[in-house]
Sequence to fold (180 residues):
Amino acid sequence: VKGNVNSHLAISDGALAVMSFEGDLNLMSLKHGNHRLTYPVWFGTYPKPLAHNGTLVLAGNNASVIAIDMSVRELPFERIIKSIWATLWMWDMAPRPGSPKGYLWHSTKLQGVRAYPVAADDNSAYVGIRHADASGTIVALDINNGNTEWIKHFDSALTTSAAFVDDFLLISTRSGGLHL
Fold:
């Protein structure tokens, strides 16, 4: 991993994900320990990424959320070529570069101070949002495209963990409340 590690580990689909202090997501192969991908994240992230079925969900400052495909691999010299392409595009000498490798979706419309992934299932990623007034929100985002499925508001900030009970998501708040 380039730089110092700044997060918990997340494992899915034969890959290990970890954030560095420099703000880069690093994916490594579990089987061989080889580097797969370095992905620069443009916002400060919560130090606990969430992995489910090959999708990594990162959340953080300004309630930003991004999903990355954990199965991707960088090709040799790919970052250098993309850097040159981006420079040529800025000078109007090349078409706009495509989305970064591994990018699935992102959301910056959730309105809050900080976001953190709390759970995921086959259909949704559940993200907690802390607001400036110490209230909280839980948002269900479609894990395939990031569309908002539902939102529930609470008078207190959510804790950073959740659990599934049968098919229900159990959430706790800092004021001591438990919600299904």
About this structure: The two ends are 39 Å apart (CA to CA). The mean pLDDT is 84. The helical segments are 78-90. The first strand starts at residue 10 and ends at 12.
